[in-house]
Amino acid sequence: MTVAAATSVVHASGLTLRYGRTAALTDVSFTLYDGVTGLLGPNGAGKTTLLRIVATALPPDQGTLSVLGNDPRTPAGRLAVRRRLGYLPQDPGFHPGFTAFEFVDYVAILKELTDRRARHQEVSRVLDAVGLSGQRGRRIRALSGGMRQRVALAAALAGDPDLLVLDEPTVGLDPEQRLRFREVIAELGEGRSVLLSTHQTEEVMALCQRVVVLDGGTVRFEGTPADLAAHARGRVWTSGARVAGALASWRAGDGRYRNVGDPPAGAELLEPTVEDGYLMLVDTPAREETGR
Amino acid sequence: MTAALAERPAPTAPRPGDPRRAMLALARTEGVRLLRHPAVIAGLLLFTGPEIYRWLTGRANRFPVLSDEDWSTQFLALLVLGGGALIAANLAALRADRHATTGLYDTLVLPPAWRTGAFLLAVLPFTVLVAVLTATRIALLAALPGSAGRPDPAELALHPAVVLLFGAAGVLLAGLVRTVIVAPLLLLAAAVAVYAAGLSSLPGHVRWLLPVALEQPPMPVPVALTSRPSGRHLAYVAGLIALVALAALVAAGARNRRLVMAGAAALSVTAGAGAAQYLPVSDAVRDARATAAERPAEMQDCRSIGSVTYCAFGGFEPWTGGWDAVVRGVLRAVPAEAAGQPFVIRQRVSTDDRMLDGRVVTAEEQAAAAAEWQRIEPGAVTVGTRWGDGRSEMSLAGLVAYQVVTHESAPAHIPVCGARGVLVAWLAGQATPATAAGLRAVDATSWGGVPFGDMQFPVGFSVPDREMAAASALLRRPPGDVATTVARSWAELTAAGTSADRAGELLGVPVPPLPPVEERTRCDG
Questions:
Q1: What pTM value is reported for the model?
Q2: Distance CA A282, CA A42 (A)
Q3: Does A160 contact chain B (CB < 8 Å)?
Q4: Is A34 near chain B, with CB under 8 Å?
Q5: Residues A57-95: tens digit of each pLDDT
């Protein structure tokens, strides 16, 4: 799939939102296509706010937004978006007394899946999809954190939405659970759009066809992960000792130091990663623009 | 793990439907959860448990007055069933807040107002269950051979109506105050208000503005005399339910013209029915009350068994068999010439507010009230509209015994002392197992003497402790042996001047010594 040929699923232009005197988002513009898009950014960058706007939980103060061809600012548009949306909040609450099946079924009802038989089939399907078929009858209070997160993902998947908005779905998961989640999300991205908020660059590398970097409420980058990595091309080098002037310098597994920043002349340059590109963006003032 | 995602099942996956159907689906889910809620289950157990226990242990009254039973459980229904609905509905409606799922639910399709509608509808299954329980209970009571009167459907319908009202209030509260503590406080306030109004601690007119109106007097009356505005009160509560439900929808963000119209209609019904509750008692009821008080015979059917005629208000005829068993029990123990005199057992109701309110205090007032009472039908023995509790049986037996012993109508709640007191108490106690049990129960809770007769009637008497002690000793002996002794000394025992000590000598039972003068009962009668 090429970007040019793809249809935009979300198009935002000039989104601005303030919480009192604090600007949460300032003039945010981006376009989302089919496939998995990662939303990277440090804590407080405005990722959750942006996702809540896309998920129709929050209206922007300014700017235009089109989600799945609808304007969420109008009641009808909002309803149309919600009918095709799956949303996993950063801290999805649960009803601890519900079983996994009951909780997903409850959410499915709120998604207006009214035919009981078809709904129950759908709930079984999504629980199976997240690997919780065997736990469907267990109360949520008895499930581990990873299982709960999968219940929340199953709830987001109910009704087979065209757009999935996932706010840091792998936070708090152990490595094995994180891998399982990645597997699920990767498959979800086939044939639908997934907007995935994370601050883990390896997740972006592993899952995302596109990436948006948000910092301080503004978009600092929008493009492919490779473009983001390329942002640090010629800025990553190895040395035998810590380099004081580098943006970041750490000792790697081979005992040598990996440095990101402005290399000295003759430095031994390395192939940059997404993480290097991200570091270059967020640790540098916003004078350098997107690599799009 | 992800095989189900390999192919998007879009063609077969259910698509969002219309909000009405989603609301009904949610209501069904919430309705089941509400029925399984501990507060609701506890309410059901508290409502049915004591009654079932009484039936299983044989303590239930087998002579229920249906026109009394139909409303007498309303307060309990409010407290435990309405309370269960209030708390369960409130917790359900607050669940998203309590468990922090609002962030997710706010992005789902079904709008909050429709969800609130579902929470309101979810109270209906419990309401229906309460209606079935109430109907089953009254049907079982009506099937008893000793049941009297007939139930009022509006009084019965108030039980589920109260549940619906409190359930709707729980949903409304959740929309107004995001804390779970308010619902129990509301329940407590409602219960205290209803109880205080019932005890006249609040102005009398207030009670009909509350969901349940406790009744004063608690004495059952024939259906024709009932003046509770049950139909209007039910309409008033129905209006309240509609108002509360509409307020809950508005609090959830619902705004439309139909809601305004429905609110206006509900307000009209509530105000209209609420005001209509205060209309004066109808002429028909007022006439029926006057007739029942002044000329009860016109409203009664009489049945003669031997020398005794039993007259009961319409609907109370099944009780004459029970009355006869008590009367026969008294007459069996007296000499034939005393037992053969004709008796009229007349069912009466008290409509004298002074008696009902306890404002007849002095001996002169009591004597005047008793004389007025006896003027209606001199010589008739009064029986009330309660039966099956032991005390009623004991009172009838006492009044019959008094008349057999003294050949006089029942006095104005004066003490009956001396041998007459001993004899009357023994005759009453030995009549049937129920009178014996009633006498023991009353004796155990009385001080200074044992009262016979309903205190809401102006006629009756009491037997002082000293005479009761002798009678109790007699009751521990075989009744046949005592009856033989009684018959032998009948003339002396029934003479007005025979003392309790002399009765003790004649009957062979100890009589306690006279208490100090200041503690003695004045025996003017």
A1: 0.86
A2: 8
A3: yes
A4: no
A5: 999 999 999 999 999 999 999 999 999 999 999 888 999
